[in-house]
Design a protein that fits this description.
Elements: H1 3-26, H2 28-51
């Protein structure tokens, strides 16, 4: 995960927490924009995740046994 991806995910989580707090204290109308911004950041994170090229799987190395032949 790159720095930008981690920031997007962290920011969206923080905005969700702020939105929940705003909902409890002031109501849904006051926190609607915060929730929409958090969802937009989650969509952006998912978009970036889907745009990454798939890396070929690395071959696993066989573990050497303690016995010599």
């Amino acid at each position: 995960m790159k720095l930008v991806d981690a920031l997007l995910l962290s920011l969206s989580l923080a905005l969700m927490i702020v939105g929940i707090h705003q909902t409890v204290t002031q109501g849904v109308e006051a926190s609607y924009a915060i929730f929409m911004f958090a969802v937009a950041l989650l969509f952006w994170f998912q978009y970036r995740k889907m745009q990454k090229p798939e890396e070929p799987p690395t071959p696993k190395k066989k573990a050497k046994s303690g016995k010599k032949r």
